[in-house]
Amino acid sequence: xxxxxxxxxxxxxxxxxxxxxxxxxxxxxxxxxxxxxxxxxxxxxxxxxxxxxxxxxxxxxxxxxxxxxxxxxxxxxxxxxxxxxxxxxxxxxxxxxxxxxxxxxxxxxxxxxxxxxxxxxxxxxxxxxxxxxxxxxxxxxxxxxxxxxxxxxxxxxxxxxxxxxxxxxxxxxxxxxxxxxxxxxxxxxxxxxxxxxxxxxxxxxxxxxxxxxxxxxxxxxxxxxxxxxxxxxxxxxxxxxxxxxxxxxxxxxxxxxxxxxxxxxxxxxxxxxxxxxxxxxxxxxxxxxxxxxxxxxxxxxxxxxxxxxxxxxxxxxxxxxxxxxxxxxxxxxxxxxxxxxxxxxxxxxxxxxxxxxxxxxxxxxxxxxxxxxxxxxxxxxxxxxxxxxxxxxxxxxxxxxxxxxxxxxxxxxxxxxxxxxxxxxxxxxxxxxxxxxxxxxxxxxxxxxxxxxxxxxxxxxxxxxxxxxxxxxxxxxxxxxxx
Length: 483
Hints:
This protein is mostly beta strands.
């Protein structure tokens, strides 16, 4: 907020009316006598969006707003947080492994578009001045169990996110400096505190990680760096995403001949978790059918489960008899620059002798904004592989890769940006687990030297029976800031 006679804000309006040119209008607002006065400070037409960004200046005590006007005339991403943050957390060097730098809270009430107040479950996690991310992690969706067709997603569904600044906290009521653009239902949405570093260094062998998704919060590591992020360690949300299918049927006494997409316990195991809200853990979550990107569970007797899906489909499990294998999770069609989706969980292989495992977790989300990124480290959102051989019970499916979303205004260098699918469980003489699909890697920078890896997970193999299906490769999307 603007607070006094020394406060100055320069408002940048980026008008995205084509790839070739962007119009930036700079407005300076400052205190004169008893009121605020606004003057047009400048107008520029530049060839790249990076050229517009250089015009954003925030003086001590000031604040900045960014308004993006889209080609159709709509206004997007309205907020009072500069894209790279404000650097208020200063310089930080991380030398140890497993450091969590974000705080998370679910919502107590729906947050409608246009409001500036959000009721959260853990208000003590936030303070006035914090940068926060609102993220619609899951949402109500009309999906059919067992449908492996592409799921098309838009701003009305899961994955939508916005940055905001907290101006006040009253117990669990968080007041934001600008209205919310999209609605965030209390079920499936979360608020995440995002640190704002000036410079961040992650040493070799050190790591910043996400809290695992627990069905309400977690699954994402998000960082804002106004100057340089030097990463020689890891920034990881691997196996932190949607949960794998649980072992819901009791061991022993399982029948044979279970082929339904939905089957009651103990005839089949659970499907992996995915973007539709409320399906995981429900009574209709048992059976061979996938639920969107969540892999289907193995069915009796000893069927292998499907791998989770995301940017690539998960592989089908293999049968132990008939068609009792779980179907792989499907592909999600999203814009990985504007939508954050975690990898679907793998299904659980059918258990009847006490030797089964849950399905593999999907990868979570890594979101980084910096002026520049340097180093030889890794940004990781891999799905979980299922280790060990299945010999008496069906093999579980691997989790799908999640999403790595990186923006560096100047240059982007790293060892790898990874969203690989996890391997399904191998074995002998039973159905085996399908491999998880690869995830999304989206990178925006003027100069990029960061290698992406979205390889799929492998399906479990058995010399005496048919192998489970491999997942499909994920998707890599690279663009310059002007796009």
